[in-house]
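Holo prediction. Input below; ligand is S-adenosylmethionine.
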Amino acid sequence: MNKNDLEKEVAKIRWWHTIDLGDGVVTNGVNNPVQLLDRCALPEDLSGMTVLDIGAWDGFFSFEAERRGAKRVLATDSYSWGGEGWGTKAGFDLARRALGSKIEDMEIGVLDISPEKVGVFDVVLFLGVLYHMRHPLLALERVSSVTGKHLILETHVDMLGTKRPAMAFYPGDELSDDPSNWCGPNPAAVEAMLKTVGFKKCQRIHSPVVFRTGIVWRAGRALYVKVRKNDSFSRRFQQSRMVFHAWK
Ligand SMILES: C[S@@+](CC[C@H](N)C(=O)[O-])C[C@H]1O[C@@H](n2cnc3c(N)ncnc32)[C@H](O)[C@@H]1O
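Structure of the complex:
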């Protein structure tokens, strides 16, 4: 596909991920995943590894895993790819074509994932999906069943003031006015759930933006949201985003 045709095709799609497709063509994503890529501490070298990306959407992290040498990458999703939200699979399909990528794809929900259906992978990416789960522990059980070695999990967290494992429940659109968000576990709950579903070791990742969970950053953001949206300061102050790595 020449550059003009690619630009035309790119413009037809509502993108989640900003992706550099080469030749100066960059998708106009709602979400620029470069910061998350930094935060999630994806291993630089994935040579010879198999990687499963659960909730891949436009596939930025799947393409990155392939670029880092993974021998097999499977991108999966269901909600966005099935058109239940505002997204579709068109971005993933076009990006894969434009990048000449060989990654595989499967439209499958988290709760339907099993070793029989998708296989077992050295590295599993579960980025930005946990808080969309109505049944988070069950979802992590499924994720664990297909993780051979190493899970990288990124999620919204809530109840940061509580030390014991605890989870906020969002029956409506309490989180970001988005009814597809269901839960906000605190870090202790994420770790306890990971241990419960069979991970032996779990680590919170302290990246250059770890200050996001610190008091100053959270207070600043909570104040901003209070002023801009008249949202509750104390509720927002309890929330952030975090990355966990877990090993079998
Ligand atoms: C916030 S996006 C994160 C996309 C990508 N992983 C990232 O970090 O940029 C959440 C993704 O989870 C997917 N998702 C939500 N519920 C799902 C389910 N039950 N099964 C599979 N994927 C789901 C959505 O379709 C969407 O692609």
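The pocket of S-adenosylmethionine is lined by residues 31, 33, 36, 55-57, 77-80, 109-110, 127-129, 132 (CB under 6 Å). That is the main takeaway for now.
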